[in-house]
Fold each of these.
Amino acid sequence: MVSKALTPSSKFAVTDPLVYIVVLNWNGREDTLACLRSLEPVWSERTKAIVVDNGSTDGTPEAVRAEFAAVEVLEAGRNLGFTGGNNIGLRYSLDRGADYVLLLNNDTVVDPRFLREMLAVATVSEEIGFVSRKIYFLDPPDLLWFAGARFSTWTGYGRVIGYRERDRGQYDDVRTIDRPCGCAVLVSRLLCRDAGLMDERLFLYVDEVEWMLRARKHGFKACYAPKAKVWHKVSASVGRESHPDAFYYGVRNTLCALDTHAHCGTRVRRYFRELSVTSVHLAALLFSSAPTLDGLRAIRQGLRDYRRGTFGSRVVRSR
C-alpha cells in the first residue's frame, strides 16, 4: 500500500525526543557485541541502549557489561521469546519517559545515520506509530531483505517488498506500509499507550502483523524510511525462515492475529481462511530448504494448536 504524501500534524511536535534502543539477546554474544559497537555513534544523552537477555548461557550479560558500561542489561532469567523479551525492554524504556523505542535484532549492524532518518519520518505526525527502515543482507551488502511489506487479512498472505533484489534506488520513497518488520522498528510512546505492547501469546513470528492490526484500530499507521539503513546477518541462500518453527508459528500466529482483528464471520469462511493460510505456508515450504516432513509436521501442529487455543513457546511433540 503506497501512501500519498505524508501530511504533517499541526498539533504534533516532538523536539529532541528521548529514544531507547532495545537489543534482544538469546545466546548471541558475538552478534550482540557487534551490534552495540555499530550503535556507538548514535548514543547520546537522549539516545540510550539497553540489552534484554532471554536467559542466555553464553556469558552475554557479563560480556556486555565489561565492554559497554553505559548499556543497561536486563536479565529475564529464561527465554520469554521475541514478544516477552521485547516487552521487558518496552516497559523499562517507557517507564523512563521514552518518546520512542527502537526494537533492534542483535544480529544487525546499522548505518550511523539510521536513527536520525527514522525520527525524521516518525515525527511528521502522531498517526505514525511504527517506522521501518531499509534492510539489507549483510553479504552481499547491496541485496535487499526488506523495503516494506504487503499483507492480506483475507488470505493471510504477506509479501516483503524488494526481497533479494539489488538496491538500485527503486524503493527510495517514504510511504505507508501494511506492516513493519520487527527486526528493526521504531515504535512511538503514543502507540504503546493506546494500542498496548506486543502480544506475548505469540512468542515468535507474526507479532508485528498482530501489533499492526491492533494499532490500526486506534488510528496508527506504519511508514517506511528508505534512508535509514540496517544490515541483517542472515544467509542470502538459506535463512532462518526455513526452520520448521517458522512454519509452526507462521500458521498458528497468523490465524490468531486474523481471528482477533479481522474476524471472518461464518464457520465456512473461517474454514476457507484456515485453508488459505495453511496453503500459503505449504507453498512456502516447497520452496524452502526446510526438511519437508518436519515442515509438514510443524504446519499441522500450528493449525491444531491454533484451534485448541494453545499459545506460547512451541512444544515439539514426539513422533
Amino acid sequence: MKHLLKIVSVNQSFVLDQQRKLAGRGAWVHEKCLQLALDRKGLVRALGDSNSESLETWLRNQAQNMADTQ
C-alpha cells in the first residue's frame, strides 16, 4: 500500500493526501501508473474534474517535488 498515492479533489483543487485521511472525492493510483492513468483519463473521471491539463500540471509538479526531497 505504500506505493499507492491518494489524490483528493478539495474545493476545485488537488491535494496529495500523504496522511490518507482527507475527505473529498479521491483516487488511489500506483506511483508508477500515473502517466497511464492520465493518458486514459482515469484520474480525470475519478476526481470529477474536466480540466485534465490542470491535473497533469499539478501531478508533474508533485512528482518533481517528491523527487527533489528524496
Amino acid sequence: MTTTFTEEERQKIAQKLAGLSYRKARKEIRKMDNKANLKFWRNGAKTGEIHTTYELPTLGLKISLVEIGQANPIEEGKRLKKEYFYTEARVEPLATPPAPQRRRD
C-alpha cells in the first residue's frame, strides 16, 4: 500500500536530502523505503545536469539527486577530469506503478 504526500511534505523531504552530502542522501533514501529501486545512476542526456533517480514504491515517491558535472584539464591539457557536485534533490509522486522486481530474500 502506497501513501500519498502533499507538495509541502515532498518539499520538506527534498530540503532534508539537499542538506546532506550525496553519499548520505543515497543512504537516507534507502533507509526511507527498504524496497527502493535505483532507476538511473548518473544519467545526464542533454540536460547539463546528472541525475540519480530512485523509485520508492512503498511511499509512492520518485527522488532524483541532481549533480552538476564539471570537466577540468589534467596537467598538460590533453585529458579532462570530470568532477561532480551535488546540488539538489527533487521529490515527485510516482506517476506509474513500479516495474515488477525480482524477489530479494
Amino acid sequence: MSTGNVERILNKYAEKIRPEHPGLPQKLYPHMLRRTRACGLYQNGVELELVSRILGHTSTQTTRIYASLSIEMLKEAMENNSVDVSETAEWLDDEEALARIFGIR
C-alpha cells in the first residue's frame, strides 16, 4: 500500500470522528503516527537507543528529534533529584571541615 493510500484512509476516518474530536489536525499523514508513537515511547521511559532501534534508525542522532520532554518528565526529574532541606549539614559550624572540603587546609 502506498503512502498516498494510507494518507487518504487516515483522512477519510478523521473526517468521521472530527465532530467529536475538534482538535484533530485538518490534514493527517502517516508519519504523524510514527512520530507520535516514538515520542510516546520516549516519554514513557523507553531509552532513546531502543526507540531508535524500533524505528530502524542507524543513528540515535536521527531519533533525537523525537526526544521531546513532557512536563511530567521534567516534574518527575525535579522531584526525584530534590535536596532534602530538613537535613542539616554537619560541617556548617566546623571551619576545619569547610577548609578541608574546599582544599584550603
